[in-house]
Each structure stands twice: as C-alpha cells, then as structure tokens.
Design brief:
This protein is mainly α and 179 residues long. It has two domains: 1-114, no CATH class; 117-175, Arc Repressor Mutant, subunit A, CATH 1.10.10. The protein is built from seven helices and three strands, in the order βββααααααα. It has helices at residues 39-50, 53-62, 66-78, 121-131, 136-143, 147-161, 166-175, and strands at 15-20, 23-28, 31-34. It is globular. The relative contact order is 0.11.
C-alpha cells in the first residue's frame, strides 16, 4: 500500500499558501484562511516580499496597493496547492514553480516567481524538451541553437539540480512542477 502524504498546513504549524478564485489563502493548523483577513499572515508575507528587493520592485510596477502587492507575491511565488510546506515554523520558505498561465510571457518571470535550483528560462525550456526524450540535435533545431550549446545547458542543469543524467533532470522537473 502506498503511503499517503498529508498536505502541508492540515496538521502542525507548517503553512501552505495558494491562490484560488482571485484570493490568496493559506492553510494553517487545519484551517483555510484568507490572507487579507489575517493581519499576522499578511504582515509575514509582506516581510518576505520586502526582503526580496527584486520582487518588490517588480510588484511595485504592477500595483501600488500594499495588500494587492502581497496577493500578487503569493500568486506568483506560492500560488499552487501542493503537498510541500511553503513556510515552516523555523521560517524556511519554499517557492513553487507553477504554471500561472503567463509562463514565457510575463515581464517579471524569474523576478517575482523563483525558478527552481536557479535555472534560467532557457534551461527550463531545455528541461521540458529533454523530458520529451528529444535528442540534443532535435533540441538544438527546435531552439535554433547549436548542439554544443544544448550540451552546455544540460551540463549546467545537471550541476544546478544535482542530477547525474537526463533521467535525473526529468525526475527533478516532475518533483518541482516544471512538467
């Protein structure tokens, strides 16, 4: 029998943030809380946002309203509902890579959201093509680059993700919601 994983926030002090129907919410202590209804939660996420100057500058270009800024920050960085805690009682935060519908089109991609393992947008593209089992030559043709550049991208991806092979890269991509 496969072990069942309890979503973060249902039990214990971990927090799972997510975005649904235009609202930023968190699950904490088994309760779903609208972020704007919880001053403590709102202030905590505001503190996270202010500690990331690049994200703050990007969000300030979208809206000047401090509450809307926090909602946008949660949407971009923690918007998906998954089984990993976004915030632990020790203050550890884990940004999520999720398909917000603006991937590849957002002016602030990589600024507000954080790409896993420090991958670049081009490396994310390569990961997706590797996952399709494309050989390097086909990836190169698809991206309009040379095969040597593809090989360099794959080496960099393996180094950044700790993967020992293309299969490891694909496993990393699944674990981090890239695929």
């Amino acid at each position: 029998m496969e072990a069942q994983t309890t979503p973060a926030g249902l039990i214990g002090n971990n927090l799972e943030a997510f975005y649904v129907n235009g609202e930023a919410k968190v699950i904490r202590d088994g309760k779903v809380i609208n972020v704007v209804d919880s001053i403590d939660t709102l202030q905590a996420f505001r503190g996270l946002l202010e500690s990331d100057k690049e994200a703050l500058q990007a969000i300030e270009q979208l809206t000047s309203d401090p509450i809307e800024q926090v909602i946008q920050f949660i949407y971009c960085r923690y918007g998906d509902f998954d089984k990993r805690a976004d915030w632990t009682p020790e203050g550890v935060t884990v940004p999520e890579y999720w398909d917000c519908g603006l991937r590849g089109k957002c002016l602030f991609e990589g600024c507000i959201c954080k790409l896993p393992a420090g991958l670049t947008l081009r490396e994310i593209e390569v990961v997706k093509l590797v996952a399709q089992d494309m050989p390097n030559k086909q990836i190169a043709d698809h991206l309009g680059i040379c095969t040597e550049t593809v090989a360099v991208h794959i080496r960099n991806i393996e180094r950044k993700t700790g993967a020992a092979s293309k299969n490891g890269v694909v496993a990393f991509a699944y674990q981090n919601n890239i695929l």
